[in-house]
Amino acid sequence: MNYYPESILKLIKSLSTLPGIGRKTAERLALHILHAPMHEAEAIASDIIELRQKVKLCSKCFALTDTEHCKICSNMNRDGSIICVVESPTDMAAIEKSGVFKGLYHILGGALSPMDGIGPDEIRIKELFLRARSNDIREVIIATGTDVEGEATASYIFDNLKILLKNLKNRDMIISRIASGVPMGGDLQYVDQVTMQRAMEGRRGF
Amino acid sequence: MNYYPESILKLIKSLSTLPGIGRKTAERLALHILHAPMHEAEAIASDIIELRQKVKLCSKCFALTDTEHCKICSNMNRDGSIICVVESPTDMAAIEKSGVFKGLYHILGGALSPMDGIGPDEIRIKELFLRARSNDIREVIIATGTDVEGEATASYIFDNLKILLKNLKNRDMIISRIASGVPMGGDLQYVDQVTMQRAMEGRRGF
């Protein structure tokens, strides 16, 4: 590689830090950036800087935003009485892509994992309970992951929301968990045991 | 995608202009850049700007460089009496990777292609002839591509170097062309007809 000038080698090295970009792809990208129209190259650089300067967390749901409230929280067409609890902005993105949910989100910023030192105070569970106290909230859907950490987080939230409801007399609120089971289009023979158990336990009347 | 803030959408869009980076990969890269250490994100941006400001062409061989002469031209261990003529810096990189060539290069910046309006004046052929006039040059290896344009360029250079040599009496110089034939490790049954013809024509005594 040392036949390239230093400034190309530097860019190849910094592009290689990106996920899924190896040395060869980084070389190809760097040479493309070298020959691309000036405004395209500058756009990438300035958009990176702008991203890091502007993006923060929504003060209500902790989604990514560059304004005070995120696009979903400030959308008057969304149903403010349902909160969907997810671990991360990418999980939120996955639900949004499905287009099926019209309420608001609450992004925890992780899942409980005592082994990694992540307890209830390390993620935004307190903030969720604070939102849930409001009389406007009719339902909380717990959509944390279906791995051990996600399940533990779901149980913890469920138990504590129950206690909260008991203390707030006459307060009616549904607490639900997204369904687990066989993925659509999936071949039953490739489904793992735990998922199959969940699919059987969660069976519904036709 | 409109659940992401504007500054993320902007970066996704500008990253999508890179070759081999689709919308989904761009989304993943943008979210990585958002969560990466600040110095890594800044390095990518500043390295892009630096690349565009500093990289120019070597005044001798027209390779990419950020100094007056490129690393190869300014390396005293390289043999200045052999010039290898290539179309592009990436072709030069391919030869350098093989590690077999110890001379200098001449980067044409393209190949003759009358259909696209690229004649001898559009690429750096004049500059090559100027270098070839020097008595120091013992050999010119023509390593343009083996497609129609590359072959035509090779013929043009060969013919005109011959005329040049005739005019410069008592001037001795070898003009060679890289070998064409069956790639190493290649299965003969998959070799195309033209390559096979070349391999037979170019056969050598054992």
Describe this structure in words.
The structure is a homodimer of 206-residue chains. With 206 residues, chain A is an alpha/beta fold. The first copy, chain A, folds into two domains: 6-54, Orthogonal Bundle (Helicase, Ruva Protein, domain 3), CATH 1.10.8; 64-205, 3-Layer(aba) Sandwich (Dna Topoisomerase Vi A Subunit, Chain: A, domain 2), CATH 3.40.1360. Chain A has helices spanning 6-15, 23-35, 38-54, 89-98, 125-132, 148-167, 193-201; strands spanning 56-57, 64-65, 79-86, 103-107, 139-142, 174-177. In chain A, 42% of the residues lie in helices and 12% in strands. Chain A has seven helices and six strands. Chain A is globular. At the A-B interface, helix 1, helix 2, helix 3, strand 2 and helix 4 of A face helix 1, helix 2, helix 3, strand 2 and helix 4 of B.
Terminus-to-terminus distance of chain A: 64 Å
Indicate the overall shape of chain A. Answer: globular
What number is the mean pLDDT of chain A? Answer: 91
The count of domains of chain A is: 2
Report the oligomer: homodimer
Please trace the helix and strand order of chain A, writing H or E for each element.
HHHEEEHEHEHEH
Q: What strand order characterises the main sheet of chain A?
A: 4-3-5-6
Count of DSSP strands of chain A: 6
The gyration radius over C-alpha positions of chain A equals: 22 Å
Under CATH at level 1, the class of the largest domain in chain A stands as: Alpha Beta
The appropriate CATH architecture of the largest domain in chain A is: 3-Layer(aba) Sandwich
CATH topology label of the largest domain in chain A: Dna Topoisomerase Vi A Subunit, Chain: A, domain 2
Share of residues in helices of chain A: 40-55%
Query: How many distinct helices of chain A?
Result: 7
Largest interface: A-B, 54 and 54 residues
Label the structural class of chain A. alpha/beta
* Main beta sheet of chain A: 4 strands, parallel
Q: What is the strand content of chain A?
A: 5-15%
